[in-house]
Amino acid sequence: GLVGSEMCIETVYVLEGVLTYYLNGQENVLYPGDSYHSFGNVPHTFVNLSNNLTKVLYIVTPPLSVGNFNL
User: Fold this and answer.
1) Which of 62, 70, 59, 69 shows the shortest CA–CA distance to 15?
2) pLDDT tens digits for range 20-45
3) Pseudo-torsion of CA 69, 61, 16, 45, nearest 10°?
4) How far is residue 52's CA from residue 12's CA, in Å, rounded to a whole number?
5) What is the pTM of this model?
6) Most exposed residue of 4, 21, 22, 67, measured as fewest CB within 10 angstroms of its CB?
7) What is the dihedral of CA 12, 28, 46, 57, to 10 degrees?
């Protein structure tokens, strides 16, 4: 998730590859065409566990500055 993003809404849409995310201690897997949508204050983590490239479309509303990302 994003640091200081309590009021944002995040949407992740998988374009290519496989994206794993953890939400409330549960592992979830997204494939091309799948999406994830939540409020920024919900603790979650995204990770690419494969050896292949994963491409996603990441949308945050309202827009946040790069300094707010926890990279």
Assistant:
1) 59
2) 999 888 999 999 999 998 877 778 88
3) 40
4) 18
5) 0.75
6) 67
7) -20
